[in-house]
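hey so i finally got around to running the thing on that chain from the lab meeting. sorry it took forever, my laptop kept dying and i had to restart like 3 times. anyway pasting the input first so we r on the same page abt which one it is
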Amino acid sequence: MLPMIKRDITEKMLALSCKFPVVAITGPRQSGKTTLARSLFPKKTYVTLENPDTLESAVNDPRFFLEKFSTGAVLDEIQRAPKLFSYIQEIVDERKKNGLFIITGSQQFELMSQITQSLAGRVALLTLLPLNYSEIKSQQKKETSIEHQMYLGGYPRIYDQSIAPEDWFLNYIRTYIERDVRLIKNIDDLTSFQRFLKMCAARTGQLLNLTALGNDCGISHNTAKAWLSILEASYITYTLAPHHQNFGKRLMKAPKLYFWDTGLVCHLLNIQSEENLAFHAKRGEIFETWVLSELIKNYLNAGKRPSLFFWQDKRHEIDVVIEKGDELIPLEIKSAKTINQDHFKSLAYWCQIAKYDPKKAMLVFAGDEDQKRSQGHVYSWRNLAKIG
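ok and heres what got predicted. didnt touch it at all, straight out
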């Protein structure tokens, strides 16, 4: 068993706890939120609202429940007891002490709604996603392949407990469907929802068409929209918006669908090994999903909001457009391990119509070493921390 992996978000979380009375950390189940909070604040009482008796106490008598924690507490899955937020507001306003409460939640929309209503201006909000490559690499004794990283994904217990990914994801999906889905919305037809989840995995990295997705699953457009919102609320999927900059071109208006974790995608697509993934028809989309997730994790671990989009007209597409102030930086993602001239076509086109210096454009590929090219910076998948 490996020791607990140090998370890149640690320094930011500690710094914010010195400036805000409440620090909220959101993210998918099993991403390491509880482990991180308890390890960084070991002197605080830990309370989980997953415990039925504890939840009943918090719901029925929130004032008395919170009075027990004179020095604050780590409150896990707090969205299950929404009445607590107003009373926490009273406590932090009265005590005027920073780092009092550390709260966690795995249902982002419900948690954010309560924070906006009761704790605005009093809470620092962080998002903890599954492990990124730099965190995983710090624990590995030898170099691994990109297929290995994509197949395993980033959920900490796979590494901490050396669990086979097929075993872990089977139980994760079963627990997620039978438990969290029913907490958010009581879905009677779990078989259809599981089919919907698999069909979403098959579309990672693609334009989102809810009508076509619903038709393939035998459900309506509105049902597909509602079910996708459940996946987004639970940090399973997210959408990447198109950039509005048109340069006189007709652009795609639909967002693109992505999963936060490629290990989950591989399991849902019945990819049974990293060798199987190496030659799989969806390898390109899975690599794009992995790269984009890594980029977003780097922003979130620094406490920053990512400003990432994609750009696409009828003939060309830029996988990622990074908005940095007034500058738009184009980035292409190629799953090949060898770079050729064709890989720069979309970048060259975009730089021409956007009047952008091609030397500042970026390309990420599945090779192992960075390259210097006149058409832009070429980064290995191993060095995404350099970007942004």
